[in-house]
Amino acid sequence: MSQNNNKLKGVDFDAVVVGAGFGGLYSVHKLRDELGLSVQAYDNGSDVGGTWYWNRYPGALSDTESYLYRLSFDKELLDEGDWKHNYLTQPEILSYLNRVADKFDLRRSYQFNTKVTATHFNEEGNYWEVTTDKGETVTAKFLITGLGLLSATNTPNFKGIETFEGVQYHTARWPEEGVDLKGKRVGIIGTGSTGVQVIIAIAPEVEHLTVFQRTPQYTVPIGLREQTDAEKAEIKANYDKIWEEVRASAVAFGLKESTIPAVSVSEAERERVFEEAWNTGGGFRFMFETFSDIATNLESNDAAANFIRKKIQEIVKDPETARKLTPTGLYAKRPLCDNGYYNTYNRDNVTLVSVKDTPIEEITAKGIRTTDGEYELDVIIYATGFDAVDGNYTKIDMRGRNGITMNEKWADGPTGYLGMMNPDFPNHFMILGPNGPFTNLPPSIEAQVEWISDTVNYMVENEISTIEPTQEALDEWLATCQEISDQTLFSKGDSWIFGANIPGKKHTVLFYLGGLGNFRKALEETGFEGVIFDRTMANVE
């Protein structure tokens, strides 16, 4: 347990932080080191890392460029940073987060291997009671949850899943010691970002790889390459300007966001721009640096989609495999990038099964049976993604005022004022909660954690007991998120961005798609307009 030298009376700790990823670590630093509060933090992993602690699957790679997939608050930390390629591997990200924890001695505030099972708000004392799977309960005035946007695993409930005699893995719970797949017959279910990375990584080493694909993906080359010391030195020399531009941008990926609509140029010019982006690499570059309207204009979206479709036909040698791999819908999901995905299907030891053509009937003792027969396997890998955004919240017994549960609050879909707060859940701040910005995550995390820290500081200094948003402010924010979403093509496609990957989950707007610059502006301009302090004293029902 952390030392409880509290500033506030009547609680075990001033704040409890849940999670040891980017958001949790930065929160502990801000609240403990800068505000001088007593902080108790928890994580169910054995060390720091958050999502990147668990996602150790083969080929795990960030699709944000290395120099921006980090926190910017400490100049020394930026200058000390090093990386080999222009995109970071999972071990490098984990190593970076360990460096952050080491530098600020953050582990001493953490209790690891500990899962928070319940958080109940005590209305008499205006504090949170936080219970863990160790049977301990502590109290704290503030509760900050950095549970991870993509960390609640989604394992499909296939018939017969328990009968398989081989080995089964979920990519988000990959064994720490690794897995030897050499010479094995492996089946992988799922071809999202994770599935794409795993397929490329393991195809050369397995005896045979059978890919079970539900939805074909638009994916472009990542453009992975080593970065020279000179390049890194130039980046570091310009970091102040780079971060200033990132914070004012839409997607926060350090790219030059296009202002030219694809419909305003000739077909030949479109092809030239797309070809250049394809050769440069980067999923977000292809969608946002080429033209300004790919995500909003159907004609422009079709042009980008057709370009990728043509590339699939050129790359994949077998016409039937190329047909199965070719998407027919909108190019309007989180843009994927890869290090040789389509070319992997030219290997003799890789088979593609379209489960839309031949659905999976059951998992058998020997493998996977679809409507066209049984595939015998030694290993099954589930690359089936996450119950995104709210998945981890609904697994905790969270109760606010009058005992209302988070599940009841979110019965019609998850909500978050500014992606951080809900009415009836006082002094609870979510990092990357529902309706937060859809961008490169570390810069969004910094924006939210800094707002939370400033707000907590204001409350402590002014002896304010509680804060929560008004229902009107939440409704207005949700309407803004919906309005922006409706202006894009993202809302027209089935995607985890809207919860469409989870059977029975309501299709709802989970993100603020207005960009990081506009989100930061909203934080600044809104101030405390949408919140109410000391609600019970103000007689607000």
UniProtKB/TrEMBL annotation:
The membrane-spanning stretches of this chain are none
Q: Name one GO molecular function term.
A: N,N-dimethylaniline monooxygenase activity
Keywords, comma-separated and alphabetical: FAD, Flavoprotein, NADP, Oxidoreductase
**Record carries keyword Ribosomal protein:** no
Q: Which domain of life is it from?
A: Bacteria
Which Pfam families does the entry mention? Answer: FMO-like
The similarity annotation says: Belongs to the FAD-binding monooxygenase family.
Which PANTHER family does UniProt cross-reference here? DUAL-FUNCTIONAL MONOOXYGENASE_METHYLTRANSFERASE PSOF, L-ORNITHINE N(5)-MONOOXYGENASE-RELATED
Q: Under which name does UniProt file this protein?
A: Cation diffusion facilitator CzcD-associated flavoprotein CzcO
